[in-house]
Amino acid sequence: MHKALENKVAVVTGASRGIGRSIALELARRGARVVINYHRSAKAAAEVVAAIQSEGGEAVAVQADVGDGDQAQALIQNALDTFGQIDILVNNAGTTRDQLLMLMKEEDWDIVLRTNLKSVFNCCKAAARPMVRQRRGRIINITSVSGLAGQGGQTNYAASKAGMIGFTKSLAKELGPRNITVNCVAPGFVLTALTADLPEELKQQGIEATPLRRWGQPEEIAYAVAFLASDEAAFITGETLTVDGGLVMQG
Fold this sequence. Notes:
- This protein has 251 residues and is of the alpha/beta class.
- It has one domain: Rossmann fold (3-Layer(aba) Sandwich).
- The protein is 46% helix and 15% strand.
- The chain has 8 helices and 7 strands.
- It has a 7-stranded parallel β-sheet with strand order 3-2-1-4-5-6-7, with helices on both faces.
- Helix 1 runs parallel beside helix 2 (42-54) and helix 3 (69-83) packs parallel to helix 4.
- It starts with 8 loop residues before the first strand and ends in an 8-residue tail after the last strand.
């Protein structure tokens, strides 16, 4: 494969498992040196690093709760100290606390907004300055079709993901003159370790709601991210790329 991201450095938040893991692996396969951010899953993060190194790539694992501004700043500084630059930031860290609004605890609202949306603010703020100095950069935020269409029982999650889309458009306008693009990828139903345990009835409902009649694979999200991180996407900014098998199109 052509090493389209050779000599680039990428930071991927929430990269120890699921979609984040696949993104980190794909960016590394395309030549990027990757910082694997994790919050609690040190063993899983080390396994991602080992997988990248086994294929001849470079990666390090860095613990940080990116919902905390100081820790997010330390994460970006670690990338700069280790590799000397940061070219790609993928904001993938996220969580869910699904519940009907009338039953939702304030704590469940706060933790989802902190993890999903405030982390994007924290990491982008930390990465923007070195990217501006370099006059180049790619920021890709992993939103969700829930942020586009809404979903019952997910007012907190949908609000965080919709907020991410508005944030992305605004930051794209701020950083565009500095040759920095900012985009979103919005996955639909994707099979990961977390979704594998869902009841078969719910899985089937997801298939029936998707025109392609299947769930997505984490690798398919990673391909979209790798494209937006590449030079081929240099004239794309402020956009949300849905990778959902046509789910949102159904309305």
